[in-house]
């Protein structure tokens, strides 16, 4: 069971990530027009972070744990996870620019390390939030059952 | 922190600014910020060829050079530049004959080895009184690839893609190709090497074309402005620059470039930095139409290959 607010929040997030995916495909296409035939997989596939890590991930989350949004740790998870995806997209875009230009940077790996680290921390927070919520739910159910028995 | 992370928009604003700041820094670091790692010691640079150059200078003093719009001739140097139209492109072919291999030289922008230290080919050529010059390998745009110039090793880090080839010019002026992943700088007899340029790929080896229609430079298989250097025999070189990215000149693929070099009789030929970098300078004048695709203007590069005393 989930509330309308929960559904709206998930749908909004899924849609935003979908729009970002389309924009990223567009950016790659426009960039390729001026690339004189030089392309980069980093830039060509950067939309996958948004599509798979964003839209599909939140769709799966909505289907499997819709009540996650009501947990206390959701906002922290949400901010960290989105920051991780954003970091990966920016890192991939940057790596694409550098690769197309024929150069590289020692710093680009840090974007990927930071991005995946943020996602890892976010998923850990989410897992803890789900466990805590289940515990809270089971405690509530136990209390309800106790009350029923008392009545 | 927990409270800050829980705020709906504060975190998003803060992190967006942080991310954009990091992105901007990396872009500036990669493309703009100059970093000089070594200053070229002009005395050291010329020592290797001082004796031969002195001999050459003495000889050249004795005879005046005959210079025309597309040729230079003295007792030691003969340069003839021909312009042809082929493959829907304008191609500038310089036929160069040197009596002394030390007259084939390289120079670095700003007289320094480093990253993002740049000047146009004509500016660098002017600073070393080059008679003829082309852009080099733009070593300063990358952190790997061998850099050995005028007998000084500046970078011994091989490129890591596995099939990156470098051009070796030995003290006798002979060109050869090495694979950076197979031949380390340490294993080379650097005492007998004048220059190593790191771009590629090789176009011709043992008189055979070694690229095909699918050969590419960093995934660029299309027609582009190109620069290449090749050798016919001892002291006899062919240098080709093609225009590209304009309505008048499409540019060459690597296979077309290799074919041009083979037609000129090259036994070995190597592709240098192309695109907007491709520039040929002769007697202080830019011969070709260098462009990155917008306006006709020289791009700043890290280094040049030149002929001069």
Summarize, please.
Chain A is mostly helical and 151 residues long. Chain A has helices spanning 4-33, 41-44, 47-64, 74-101, 108-150.
Describe the structure.
The complex is a heterodimer of chains A (about 150) and B (about 300). Chain A is mostly helical. Chain A has one domain (about 5-150). Chain A is built from five helices and no strands. Chain A has helices at about 5-35, 40-45, 45-65, 75-100, 110-150. In chain A, α1 packs antiparallel against α3 and α4 (about 75-100) packs antiparallel against α5. The radius of gyration of chain A is 20 Å and the shape is elongated. Chain B has about 300 residues and is of the alpha+beta class. Chain B has one domain (about 35-305). Helix content of chain B is about 20%, strand content about 35%. Chain B contains five helices and 23 strands. In chain B, the strands form six sheets. Chain B has a nine-stranded antiparallel beta sheet, covered by helices on one side. In chain B, strands 6-23-9-20-21 form a five-stranded antiparallel beta sheet, covered by helices on one side. The longest helix of chain B is centred in the first third of the chain and has 22 residues, at about 10-30. Chain B is globular, with a radius of gyration of 21 Å. The interface between A and B is medium-sized, with 29 and 33 residues.
């Amino acid at each position: 069971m989930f509330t309308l607010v929960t559904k709206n929040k998930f749908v909004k997030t899924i849609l935003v990530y979908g729009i970002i995916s389309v924009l990223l495909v567009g950016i790659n296409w426009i960039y390729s027009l001026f690339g004189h035939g030089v392309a980069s997989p980093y830039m060509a596939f950067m939309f996958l972070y948004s599509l798979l890590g964003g839209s599909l991930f939140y769709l799966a989350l909505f289907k499997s744990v819709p009540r996650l949004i009501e947990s206390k740790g959701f906002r922290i998870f949400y901010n960290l996870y989105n920051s991780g995806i954003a970091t990966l997209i920016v890192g991939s875009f940057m790596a694409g620019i550098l690769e197309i230009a024929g150069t590289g940077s020692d710093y680009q790996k840090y974007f990927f390390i930071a991005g995946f680290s943020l996602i890892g921390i976010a998923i850990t927070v989410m897992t803890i939030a789900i466990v805590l919520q289940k515990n809270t739910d089971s405690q509530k159910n136990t209390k309800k059952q106790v009350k029923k028995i008392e009545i | 922190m927990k409270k800050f992370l829980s705020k709906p928009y504060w975190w998003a604003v803060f992190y967006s600014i942080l991310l954009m700041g990091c992105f901007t820094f990396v872009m500036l670091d990669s493309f703009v910020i100059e970093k000089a790692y070594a200053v070229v010691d002009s005395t050291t640079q010329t020592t290797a060829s001082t004796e031969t150059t002195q001999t050459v200078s003495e000889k050249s003093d004795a005879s005046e050079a005959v210079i025309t719009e597309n040729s230079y001739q003295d007792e030691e140097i003969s340069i003839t530049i021909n312009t042809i139209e082929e493959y829907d492109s304008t191609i500038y072919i310089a036929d160069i004959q040197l009596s002394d291999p030390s007259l084939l030289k390289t120079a670095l922008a700003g007289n320094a080895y480093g990253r993002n230290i740049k000047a146009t080919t004509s500016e660098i050529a002017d600073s070393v009184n080059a008679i003829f010059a082309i852009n080099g390998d733009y070593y300063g745009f990358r952190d790997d690839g061998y850099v050995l110039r005028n007998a000084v090793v500046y970078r011994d880090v091989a490129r890591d893609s596995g099939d990156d080839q470098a051009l070796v010019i030995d003290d006798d002026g002979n060109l050869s190709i090495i694979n950076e992943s197979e031949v380390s700088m340490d294993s080379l007899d650097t005492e007998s090497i004048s220059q190593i340029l790191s771009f590629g790929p090789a176009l011709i080896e043992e008189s055979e074309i070694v690229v095909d229609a699918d050969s590419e430079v960093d995934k660029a298989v299309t027609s582009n402005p190109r620069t290449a250097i090749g050798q016919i025999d001892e002291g006899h070189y062919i240098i080709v620059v093609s225009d590209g990215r304009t309505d008048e000149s499409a540019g060459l693929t690597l296979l077309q470039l290799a074919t041009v070099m083979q037609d000129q009789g090259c036994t070995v030929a190597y592709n240098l930095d192309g695109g907007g970098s491709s520039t040929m300078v002769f007697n202080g004048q830019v011969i070709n139409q260098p462009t990155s695709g917008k306006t006709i203007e020289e791009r700043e590069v890290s280094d040049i290959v030149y002929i001069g005393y």
